[in-house]
Amino acid sequence: MSALTEFYGEIAACQRCILSQARKNTVPGEGPEDAEIMFIGEGPGFHEDQQGRPFVGSAGHFLEELLEDIGLRREEVYICNVIKCRPPGNRDPLPEEIEACKPYLDRQIELISPRMIVTLGRFSTEQYFPGAKISHIHGQPRKVGGIIYYPMYHPAAALHQPKWRQVVREDMSKIPQVLAEADRIAEMELPQDAEQLSLF
Ligand code: SF4
Fold it and tell me: What pTM did the predictor assign?
């Protein structure tokens, strides 16, 4: 059994927060263990909960379209969410739910060890760019600990707000170049006593 499969089993049994009570399936994430790029969204919706897979609804189709535009198939990237269980009625995840699920996300990053983490939407962006407005920082890479963090709007938001659709396309189109120039992006220094990874 691979480390990732074993890890998914651990998540499937999780009852750390109240979201365990109404879920049909946990949605740990999917993609190759050696993926270069990891996309982190918000949380599972109805279809994701039904199927146990991330990004399978309309936002997922849009994400696949965006990946195709840069010559990638979804099978080549790793896709997951900040929380692994669906909030009732697709409400926003609560801070305590994100906190309870955070060790899984951290472990996932350790296992995949991606070159680039693309945060999709404000909840995943907030994990690495606390307090920053996504409207100010989207499409701007930061490098910490050898990993490039790249914030983008969530594809679902872009589907609901046509004005963001082009912005999302443009940010996605820059990813190959950001990766190609990764070695030239300056590493950010973090204070020794930083309690959490903040890229600001
Ligand atoms: S959302 Fe995360 S912490 Fe909460 S029950 Fe699901 S897997 Fe566990």
Answer: 0.94
Name all domains of the chain by residue range, CATH numbers in brackets: 3-184 (3.40.470.10)
Torsion-angle region of 31 (φ positive above 0: left; ψ -120 to 50: alpha; else: beta):
left
- For ligand 1, atom 2, which residue shows the shortest CA distance? 101
State how far the Cα of 184 lies from the Cα of 16, in Å rounded to an integer.
Answer: 41
The ligand 1 atom at the shortest distance from the C-alpha of residue 28 is: 7
Centroid of ligand 1 to alpha carbon of 187 (angstroms): 32
d(CA 62, CA 58): 6
For residues 79-101, average pLDDT: 96
Rounded Cα gap, residues 11 and 73, in angstroms: 26
